[in-house]
Amino acid sequence: MIELEGLPELVDPVLIAAFEGWNDAGEASSGVLAHLETEWKATPLVELDPEDYYDFQVTRPIVELGEGMTRSITWPTTRLLVARPPGAKRDVVLLRGIEPNMRWRSFCAEIVGLCHDLGVELALLLGALLNDSPHTRPVPIVGSVSDPGLARVLNLDLTKYEGPTGIVGVLQHSLGSAGLQAVSLWASIPHYVAQPPNPKATLALLRRVEDMLDIPMPYGDLTEEARAWETGVDELASQDSEVAEYVRELEERKDAAELPEASGDAIAAEFERYLRRRDRGTDG
């Protein structure tokens, strides 16, 4: 177990976590963590020992060339960083890693211990999955919670999924069992355009995190990248009549399933988000 020494006292810290791998269709969820780490200039806190949790024949280290043709090796691991977002009154701990290959229960116990040491009481875990969602519609976000009452407070659509799970599901269970509030958010990625990156889904997750935490999120270039991504998929779909017809079928199915009040809720949520960002002077 890692012991943290010389750690600055954090203010009401919240954890945001994502893992590359099975839980990360289109790299949408790990894209959120990469974006926030860069935009917030997050400071490294600690990284877990990769020897304990990774099979290097499955998740291989990466060799890179630096100045003077010197080689360095980056080992697969999970890292924790901390940031104080501009305009926020609390600290954010970012947990960014790769889904471990083994010893998941020990891995989760170590994360839970670190959360207790840091004073984290709320954790948001991000994921993305492949679905039959049309790329032309808003990205569906569903979730699960450790406390059913939390779903009502957060106005979260709960998933009814049962079946195999990844490290996001196991870690959420471990955090909840340890007395922390744990929420997982899942973005639905169109299965016919699964290759990464998917900035539209990353942006949708980022906006949902902003709504839940009431912390201004830096969109940066994501808004324009999401528009360009959708335009590019439109152009590719238009070149294949079968794909274009399939997308139209998905659109019709999606529109028929959407209740009018659901669309109204989405518009209201977007307007409230705009007002908050305007009041903070962060709206672009």
From TrEMBL:
Source organism superkingdom: Bacteria
The protein's name in its UniProt record: Carboxylate--amine ligase
Protein source organism: Acrocarpospora macrocephala
Lineage: Bacteria, Bacillati, Actinomycetota, Actinomycetes, Streptosporangiales
